[in-house]
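agent: user wants the full assembly modeled, not chains individually. Plan: 1) parse entity lines 2) check alphabet per entity 3) run joint structure prediction 4) return tokens. Steps 1-2 passed, two entities, 440 residues total. Proceeding.
--- entities ---
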Amino acid sequence: MSDTPERLSPELEAFLAPERRRPDPPTATQEEIFSRVGATLGWGGPGPGGSDPSGGAAPGGHAAAGGVAVAKHVAAGSLMKTVATLVVGGVIGSGVHEVYDRASDRRAERTTVAAVAPPVPTPAPAPVAAAAPPVEPVPQAVVKAVRPESPPARPEHARERDRNLAAERALIEQARTALAREQGAAALAVLERHARDYPEGALEEERESLLVQALVGAERFDQARKAAALFHRHFPRSIFGAVVDEALKSIP
Amino acid sequence: MAGKPASQLPNGATAPGTVDFQSLYKQEFGYAWTTLRRLGVRESDLADLAHDFFIVVFRHLGDYDRARPVKPWLFGIAFRVVSDYRRSARFARERLGDPPEVVDRTAPADEQIAERQAREAVVRALEELDLDRRAVLVMHDLDGHPVPEIAAALTIPLATAYSRLRLAREDLGAAVKRMRAREEGRRP
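--- prediction returned ---
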């Protein structure tokens, strides 16, 4: 067996050439998907093209990414505590809740939701197996210190707000996972629970956009159209508007 | 063995050994998007699959070996995400009216149309290939990865990778001939 395969025939070479020049997707698409990934993973911040890619734009992402690496490869207790601190700090920290801030802007005053949902397991959103090729461990992996200084003490209402947001996020992620698995009824059930527990929650916008997709998935097309109209009325400049429209387009 | 790696992770402002998801996302989004399309994800499903793909990437970032090039690792993930997608009811469901791909406004319109049609022809021809063969052909003949790197990324024996590449080229050649024959048949 040769170490190099035969050269591609000139005919196939010419046929494939245009595909090699395929343009990149628009930046807006890149940023929209980054926002969705951030919402699923529980951190916000500007898109990937932000002016401070190494800084506080998505600290939860950095910390969690490093946390994943370290958790897999380092067993030292003190380092694990550091990782846990960074992960929690990153999630609770200031970069997490652009979504929350958007929601706060919409409502000048909001009442704190008293009921805190119990911890909800967060399943993987995509039904895919562990995908990495076999690789050697990376023992030298370290967590990037996103926030080297200790964060100031947070008041109780801020902690409660964060707990609520974490619970909300878990429900939204469950719904998203159910949708990805074509389980429209399950997605609707989770979304209804979110609507009941957090009628004006920080992730209301995401919930309403997922509701449209779930209704389309469940073939409740009239309700989907009505939900989409309501969505656009309530969130006319939403980044999820395109997703909602796309869901409607898929109605036969 | 493997030639020069197709790419390395951005070093950016990260500490040694740290994989910076945000930089990785920014640098490799286009590659991921294009790879998903080439592996058969419909335009209308690309955004959702790209989202799912990057969730998996994020969760497995700790498994990534920085000593290795990043694109084959990403391709391995994309391959598995697409495998699941193609088995799903969502893929089986017919969807019409895919949105148009991005347009290069700097090129004349007729060139754009011809280029786009040529790309669509490639994707249609690739669609006739079995996914396992198609993945090897995309990695080698479109992305330029050496075969040993492909075998490692897809966790298949080296001989299998060579065999799939050869068969994929045969399949692609046959698909192109069929397409051209159909086009000839449509001409007045």
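agent: reporting back. Chain A is about 55% helix and 0% strand. Residues 50-152 of chain A have pLDDT under 50 and may be disordered.
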